[in-house]
Design goal:
The chain is of the alpha/beta class and 314 residues long. It folds into two domains: 160 residues, Response regulator (Rossmann fold, 3-Layer(aba) Sandwich); 147 residues, Response regulator (Rossmann fold, 3-Layer(aba) Sandwich). The chain is 44% helix and 18% strand. The chain contains 13 helices and twelve strands. Strands 7-6-8-9-10-11-12 form a seven-stranded mixed β-sheet, sandwiched between helices. Strand 3, helix 4 and strand 4 form a beta-alpha-beta unit. The longest helix has 17 residues.
C-alpha cells in the first residue's frame, strides 16, 4: 500500500511526447489516413492523450498556409513533424533542419529534392513514398480499356506541384504507346479548376486523367460530379474518387502508408536518426471501379477488370 502513491506519482509525471501532424488537405479528407496513423501508433504502445499528444494542422488545399502552420508547430515544440505528400513535406523541410520530418505519401522524394537517396536520406527527412512511375501509365491504360474509342485525354495538373508535373510527363510518355493525344490543362487553385474543367470539355477530349495534387483531392466530389454531368470518363489515384462517383481509381493504398508511418515515429522517438532510416516504397495498391458510373456513361466494364478490381461499386 505504501508504494501506491509513488506509482500514482510516476503515472502522473509520465513524459508526453508531442507530434505535429501537418496536412495540405481538409480535415474530412485526411481523417481516414490520420486514423490509420493513430491506430499504427497504438499498436506500438503510443496513445494519443496519454504518452503522446498530436497537434493537427490543415492547409485545406491552400499551399500558402503551410509555412504559417509549420511555424506554429515549431512554436509548440513538437518533436516530430509528420507530413502527408510532397507539398507539405517540402515546406516542412524548408522550415526546419533540426526537427525530424516523417513523410507518409509523397511522390519521388529524390527527384523532388526531399532526400539524397532512398537508402540513406541523409538529413532530417525520412518516411515512406507513394512513388511508382508506372502508375500514371497504368491509369491511362485503364481509361483506354474502359473506353476503347477514346483518342484524346485531358491531363489535369498543377504546375506548382513537382509531383503533378512528373505525373504529366509520365502520362505523355505512356500516351505514345497507347496512341493517345494528351491535352494539358493547368489548374493551380479552386478558381482555376472550374475554368480548366470547362476548357477540357470545350476541347472535346474523350476522357480526363487527374494528376496527384491536394487541390484536386479537396475537390474530388466536384470533379466527379462535373465529369458525370458531362458524360466524361475519368481516372484518379485515390479510391475515394471512385467512391465519390468517379469512373475509376488506381493507386497506392494510402491507409497502409499512414499506418506504416507510425513505425518511423516510434523509432525516432526511441532515438533513431531520420538520416539513417531508408525510405520505404508502397506495397499495396487499390483498383476501384464505379460500375454504376460506367453504366451511366454507356460503358461496359470488361469482365477481367471486374474480377481484378479490389472494389466494384454497383
Amino acid at each position: 500500500m505504501a508504494a501506491w502513491p509513488a506509482i500514482a506519482l510516476g503515472q502522473q509525471t509520465q513524459t508526453v511526447r508531442r507530434i505535429g501532424m501537418l496536412s495540405p488537405f481538409i480535415p474530412s479528407d485526411a481523417a481516414p489516413w490520420h486514423k490509420a496513423f493513430v491506430l499504427g501508433l497504438r499498436d506500438l504502445g503510443w496513445q494519443d492523450g496519454a504518452n503522446i499528444a498530436i497537434e493537427y494542422r490543415y492547409a485545406e488545399g491552400h499551399n500558402d498556409r503551410l509555412p504559417g502552420l509549420i511555424a506554429d508547430l515549431i512554436r509548440r515544440k513538437v518533436e516530430i513533424i509528420v507530413t502527408s505528400v510532397t507539398n507539405d513535406s517540402l515546406a516542412a523541410r524548408d522550415a526546419t533542419k533540426d526537427i525530424p520530418i516523417v513523410m507518409a505519401a509523397p511522390g519521388d522524394p529524390v527527384r523532388t529534392g526531399l532526400v539524397k537517396s532512398l537508402a540513406r536520406p541523409g538529413g532530417n527527412v525520412t518516411g515512406l513514398s507513394q512513388m511508382n512511375p508506372e502508375l500514371n501509365g497504368k491509369r491511362l491504360a485503364l481509361i483506354k480499356e474502359l473506353a476503347p474509342s477514346v483518342t484524346s485525354v485531358a491531363a489535369i495538373w498543377n504546375p506548382e506541384d513537382p509531383i503533378s508535373a512528373l505525373g504529366l510527363s509520365e502520362i505523355q510518355d505512356a500516351a505514345v504507346k497507347l496512341n493517345l493525344e494528351v491535352r494539358s490543362f493547368e489548374m493551380r487553385n479552386n478558381e482555376e479548376l472550374g475554368i480548366g474543367l470547362d476548357a477540357a470539355i470545350k476541347a472535346r477530349v474523350g476522357a480526363i486523367v487527374i494528376m496527384p495534387n491536394p487541390v484536386f483531392v479537396t475537390n474530388m466530389k466536384r470533379i466527379a460530379d462535373f465529369a458525370f454531368q458531362n458524360k466524361m470518363p475519368t481516372v484518379f489515384h485515390l479510391r475515394e474518387y471512385a467512391e465519390a462517383g468517379g469512373l475509376v481509381s488506381y493507386g497506392v493504398d494510402r491507409l497502409d502508408l499512414f499506418r506504416r508511418t507510425a513505425t518511423y515515429v516510434d523509432r525516432i522517438l526511441k532515438g533513431a536518426s531520420p538520416a539513417d532510416l531508408p525510405i520505404e516504397q508502397p506495397t499495396k495498391f487499390d483498383l476501384v471501379i464505379n460500375n454504376r458510373t460506367a453504366k451511366a456513361l454507356g460503358l461496359t466494364v470488361p469482365t477481367k477488370l471486374l474480377f481484378t478490381a479490389d472494389q466494384v461499386i454497383e
